[in-house]
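Q: I have 561 residues here and want to know how they pack in 3D. Can you give me a structure?
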Amino acid sequence: MAFDGLFTHQIIKELSFLETTRINKITQPDQYTVILTIRANRKNQKLMLSIHPNFARMHITNNQFDNPFEPPMFLRVLRKHIEGGIIEHINQIGNDRIVHFIINNTDEIGDRIKRHLYLEIMGKHSNIILTDENNKILDSFKHLTPNTNSARTLMPGFNYEFPPTEKKTNPFEVDSIQDALEMSLPIHKAVLKHLEGFSPLAVKEMLSMDSDIDRAFNQFMQLIKSNPAIFKVDGREDFYFRPVAHSTEIKTYDSLSTMLDDYYKDRAVRERVRNQTNDLSRHLNSLLQKNEKKLAKLVDELEQTKRMDEMNLFGELITSNMYQLKQGMDELTTVNYYNEETVTIPLNPRKSPAENAQYYYKQYNRLKTRKAHAAEQIKATQDEIAYIETIQMQLDHISVDDIDDIRTELAEQNLIKKKHKSKQSKKNQQSSIDYYLSRDGQEIVVGRNNLQNEYITHKLSRNNYLWFHTKDIPGSHVVIMDSNPTDGTIEDAAILAGHFSKAHGSSKIPVDYTEIKHVHKPSGAKPGFVTYTDQITVMITPEDDYVAQLRNNYLNKKVPE
């Protein structure tokens, strides 16, 4: 991602309207994010400051966040010193990814104070630091002690120092860069080494404009403006304050903040879910491997039972030829009276003929028992594998609110230790289900986990509603909430079923659909498991953008209660 110094320069210009406005509220929804609620342009603006190791950024956000009941210590310090304060100025340190807020406020006794808030957007080293008027650190999101970092110390009471970086040329302070570059290096490396705030994406874009480095630099700097876009370059999605050369699938926005909110929305949610379900993913992978090994062993055992009838035949032939057998013989050659073919039966010379016959009868009975047991265990193991794969698929699509449901379900299935039991009311279940609006304006519901799947299939829906599921592939239950769906709505529901399945990202996914009255849950079956009949199968190829449009259509209409 190209949140470089040039992008930081542009986002600060866009946020300049926040200067002289008041910070009304400060929240910290997670371990990486601070939200400053600021009154500006006659509305509350939520300014996000994120130090996420992969998604560090700053922009206005319209997303909603849940806040912890107990405010963390750093949040308490921020509230004490800058909540209610006026933002005097927002500026950039050089052309680096360091944002400096100057905030005027009053202390507990009404004296005027000045505070400095620094946001360092530097990947895994990102940080937020609060200092007093003398730049003495009051607190920071991350603490760096002299023992952990010899370059600088970030602890309360120490003077704040900028991160140690190479001395580079600020591109906004020069007209020519020819003399500033070390021309012994390849040109792209020289630009990265000597121009402050230039990312590889910016260098590539600049060098594509002209063969003369100064002309390319001047053209590039003149074109810096807020025309933000999300696009793909060489198949990889990226963003910048303007589309770059050779980019495809360009989606433009009115503001940098709107673009960043859109770009990071799903990524941030997926990251939060991934962080909170890492232990589940590892455990499920371990269970899946264990069951796959067990299945292979059971299949091998079942293969061995194919000799069952042969063992019974050998016992019968030995018994019928008992009169000509003597102890000490190591084989019997006789005619199989079922097909008139000659057969040779190995014998144990230490056993009597009767004992040899009993041995083969026992082998027959043992293999017969094993066959019945192996077939039963194979079915149970296959069901367990399908169930685990369904949960794994759901982890790719759930929201943070669904994690407790997944954990509760796995605990009830004795797949993880039971820590707590959460009960969800019918109203809460309904409000957490995803609603979509088809191209023809009809509602479609999608379950994100097995509890929701069972709710929408067996409680929320009517018998004549159409129910959708990928054919022989783990996936979500999808139902059209209308008795007379159009062909377009049926296609949209099938697209959603393919999208929310293990086959996500594939083409020509088989999706079955039938009426709810033909969908049944077998007694004792695992959550979300159903059987169905009278189905019709269609082949679909879901596209992520189209699925997002269906969801956005519904949100624009109304939010389900």
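Q: Anything worth noting?
A: Residues 256-304 form the longest helix (49 residues). Residues 422-429 have pLDDT under 50 and may be disordered.
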